[in-house]
Model the fold of this input.
Amino acid sequence: MAEQFPLRLVSSYMLAAAVRHLVFERVDGQAFAFAPGQFIQIHFHYADGKPTKRSYSVATVGVGDATPVAQIEIAVSYVDGGAATALLANLQPGETVNASGPYGRFCLFDNDANQRYLLVGTGTGITPYRAMLPQLRRVIAARGCEVNLIFGARNEHELLYDADFTAFEREVAGFRYYSCLSRVPRALPRTQDRSGHVQGLLNELQPSAEGDIAYLCGNPNMVDEAFALLKDAGLPVPHIRREKYISSK
Done:
């Protein structure tokens, strides 16, 4: 059963014009155990006193297993008029929020035996893949599988954690980081940049029913369209793992 606990804001910075990275620690001083790919929920109240909550994937880069971490990092997209935005955009270091978790099964499975992972994300849907990086390093070394990370954004300024993924690609053979930019290309294009949406790159990578497992996270329309594409390519439904990010007010 998921725990409930208060979190204290340690620090924050803007990842993009409308996305903030927040670093929390538990007020009780306890470490936080989670599997990369899981999320927490932030609990708060609307102005009329009605309780509500929002879900955020844990972005913390741990050691690649369930070893507890000292800090919980999340990325928050600002929504015009959003109640969670009003809370988290103005939160100052030392202030607290109530949380619970971890939740979810959007994780790498120990019994996976695939030859390649296709990790697809848009917006803050890229966050769980950041937490998976140490685990991916270990899986690539142990099984020799390939990992293709595919990030869809409108322009390079919206490529959240771009430096983290770029550095990881330099360090780890077998990891490829693709950027699909739908509106404006990078000022200094990279070999793995593409124009357009992630669905076009998925077609280029020729999904394999026998060798691939895909993860889809982010915009619901992207998730639905990519799911249909992968299913048409023959991937079994259990090998297409999905998590949709829906902006709520």
Notes: The longest strand covers residues 3-16.
